[in-house]
Amino acid sequence: MMKTVVKVALISIAVAVAYLLLWPVAISPKAWDAPLSKGFTGSFAPNTQLSSLTLIDMENDYGPEDFAVNSNGDIATSSHSGFILVKKRGQQGFTRWVSTQGRPLGIEYDHADNLIVADAEKGLLKILPTGDIETLVTHVAGQAVVYADDVDIADDGTIYFTDATAKFAPEEYNGTLNASMLEIFEHMGNGKVIAYYPDSGKAQVLMDNLVFANGVTLSHDNSALLVNETGKYRVLRYDLNPEVAEKVTTVINNLPGFPDNIVAAHNGYLIGLASPRSDAVDALSAYPFIRSMVQRLPSFMRPSAKNYGHLIRINEKGKVLNSYQDPAGLYPFITGALEVDEGLYISSLTAEKVGFIKI
Prior knowledge:
Elements: H1 2-22, E1 54-56, E2 67-69, E3 75-78, E4 83-87, E5 95-99, E6 104-109, E7 115-119, E8 123-127, E9 133-137, E10 139-140, E11 143-144, E12 148-153, E13 159-163, H2 176-186, E14 191-197, E15 202-210, E16 213-218, E17 224-229, E18 234-239, E19 248-252, E20 257-264, E21 269-276, H3 279-283, H4 288-295, E22 309-314, E23 320-326, E24 334-340, E25 343-348, E26 354-357
Antiparallel strand pairs: 1-26, 2-3, 3-4, 4-5, 6-7, 7-8, 8-9, 10-11, 12-13, 13-14, 14-15, 16-17, 17-18, 18-19, 20-21, 21-22, 22-23, 24-25, 25-26
């Protein structure tokens, strides 16, 4: 009897080891050296400035990822359900307007009050004031746009948007959050920044090999793009002047969290840090084989995001001007903000309300 028990135990152990070593996983991890995290120190010292947000109703929807304001002062937000919600000037809450039937993320109004949408499942879309939807971009240079993430529009009408990962489609990998974690954990750099020219209907890739290309915004003078590379905890600057040789420079790096959206504000740029960095993810950065083994573990045993509300403001040179925080994470996964005269509308990947704070 004892021999049988031992034999079964040994076989079970062998099967478990073989599974951890050999079972196929979605990621093909690449070794990299994560910068040593300084944590919440210096300019990022903890505070509670976001701990008392006013919460604005979303008509039982959730996940207000981004905001946009039209010429009437109406504020739109994208939601997890696929609906675009609008808070008309003078209204108290957001109400549903139109659904993309996908997962709208970054949004921006153009000069004609068309809402341009980076939809993680549908590509780059345009929603007319009538509510009619047009598809602008689904492929670039023969490759599909897999995870359209954020968008901004230049004064000349050029639309810039990010394709966060060309590998992990949200509809195939259990949603946007899980797909983003796969891209970051793999760290191969499947993200892109794309320019779309409405007059010609053509699109081109400006930047590639980014580890989860996330938020994008024009600089105040429209001379450059600022791009959040979430997987490397940094913000990059892409110079739009064709005569500039060094196209890409780093604005700020070694952030204490994962940068999500970025938007030009009255003073500088606002960046949402969706979650603090993971010590486990950083520790495993140089060990791709172990990362593959970790990916084979049950989801509850893998590194996961933590709730910690964090929004920062930087200037053109990357100096941190403000760091607004909610250490308790009562308003989780902050993706960014919209600055209006009255204060800040705070966006989130998962929150059930829109946050607002007077600044």
